[in-house]
Amino acid sequence: MAATATSKKKAAMLLMSLDSVTATELLKELGAEEIEQIAIEMAQINASGSRETKKQDEIVREFCSSLKEGGSQGLNVQSFLKETLVKLLDKEKVEEIQSKVRKATRQSDIFEPIRSASGYELALAFEGEHPQTAAAILSKLEPSKVQEVLPLLDKDFCCKVVWKMAKPTQMGAGVRQRMASTIGERLKSFKGETVIAGKPEKTLRELAIVLSDVESELREQILDDINKQDEQMGTMVRNLMVTWEDIPSIADRSLQEALRSVEAKKLAIALYQADEEIVQKIRANISERASEGVEEEMSLMQEPLEKEILDAREEVVAPLRKANEGGTLRRVRQ
Predict the structure, then answer these.
(1) Is it true that domain 113-212 has CATH number 1.20.1090.10?
(2) CATH class for the domain made up of 242-325
(3) Nearest Cα residue to 148 out of 229, 50, 213
(4) Best exposed site among 11, 59, 116, 237 by fewest CB in 10 Å?
(5) For residue 250, which phi and psi values (nearest 5 degrees)?
(6) What average pLDDT does range 183-187 have in this prediction?
(7) What's the rounded Cα separation, in Å, for the pair 81 and 74?
């Protein structure tokens, strides 16, 4: 007799609490139709993330007290689908069940519309949400998708999201499901329209600014993830954390320490036609002797090429970047 809806779920929860060997032995007592129903039920429970640990324990105790200790390791659902069914049914039947399981999984996986959404759509869907919601959703996505979304978020919001991801709050599967459902419904409401066309595109520079403000350990973890996906992008983000334009925001002591390693000739070239605020900031943080050396170099040099100017400015910024990576760079807080 085919299993009822209640018994199917109980059987599925029981099997998910057991090791694959024990699960296989139990399934040998069932027919192909019942195995198919239970396999689909297991896939739906697994995809929805709605495992009820307490309920599973009750079912295990109800089934057999001897499994009370041995059933705690749990059954790997993917292993069950790939290995256990093959031991019990013919290949054709296994393929048929697996096809139905994949369909059931897609229907139950509330994260599917989120995974398939573009970075822009997700960024828009997170607008007005609590950072914890965005963090909970992003933590379930691939690193490449997370890297796509973060630069598109508001700077302050992005920083809070990153912190929440670094120090996750314990939450039940039901809470995460409700969050995913909310974001999923918002994504559906877009209906393919270009509602984000007017949203200004954020840049890697904005992501770099966010990361420059977070704890060094977390920053390195995120940068390593970016680097694994795209080494060139990882280098760009690191460099964009501190740029020539950031010099006015660098604390005097940090700037003084960095400028000590820059030759007067390079500094003279770097200051050529530079923004007056940057010029004044640098001049105020070098010694009188160094300032005289810069003046002398300026009086002797020919008009530098654009590449020479950019290279010289990179040399000025290099020690600031090194200090930033080491966590010793100080900035002036506005």
Answers:
(1) no
(2) mainly alpha
(3) 229
(4) 116
(5) -85, 135
(6) 84
(7) 14
Contacts of 273 (CB under 8 A, 6+ apart): 309
Q: Taking a C-beta distance cutoff of 8 angstroms, is the pair 157, 131 a contact? A: yes
CA distances from 152 to 22, 37, 56, 188, 203 (A): 49, 43, 41, 20, 7
Position 264, amino acid: A
- pLDDT score recorded for residue 325: 83
Tell me, yes or no, if the two domains 113-212 and 242-325 fold the same way: yes
| Three-class DSSP category at 89 | coil
Q: How far apart are CA 104 and CA 39, in angstroms?
A: 10
CA distance 121 to 195: 9
Q: Cα-Cα-Cα-Cα dihedral of 198, 201, 207, 208, to 10°?
A: -140
What is the chain's mean pLDDT, rounded?
A: 75
* Closest by Cα among 267, 251, 249, 275 to 318: 267
What does the domain layout of the chain look like in residue ranges?
5-108, 113-212, 242-325
pLDDT of 34 strictly over 80: no
Per-residue pLDDT tens digits for 267-314: 999 999 999 999 999 999 999 999 999 999 999 989 999 999 999 999
The tokens describing 175, both together, are 């809470």
Phi-psi category of 115—alpha, beta or left, where left has phi over 0 and alpha has psi -120 to 50? alpha
pLDDT band at 47 (very low <50, low <70, confident <90, very high): low
pLDDT digits (tens, 9 = 90+) for 90-144: 677 767 766 666 665 554 567 778 888 888 888 888 888 898 888 888 888 887 7
